[in-house]
Amino acid sequence: MESPGIIPIVLTGMGMVAAVLLGVWGIVARYDDRVRNRMDALRDRMDAQGRETTEQLGQLRERMAKLEGLLEGLREAITGKRAA
Length: 84
Hints:
Largest sheet: none
Structural class: mainly alpha
Number of helices: 1
Distance between the termini: 106 Å
Helix content: over 70%
């Protein structure tokens, strides 16, 4: 035997569940966008730092090569021999 009041109660419950789910999905979507934006910003910063590090490493290699040349010239000046 069905009660005529059960259908509105079930429909109200389903409506409330739907409203809660839509709210949760909205929160998740906003959170997902915020996380994605932060990840994009972090990736951009890491890329910039990587480029800067590569540039600095190239400059350091150039400076070391110059120092090696000066040391070789100093060694030749002191010993009078050319390095092999």
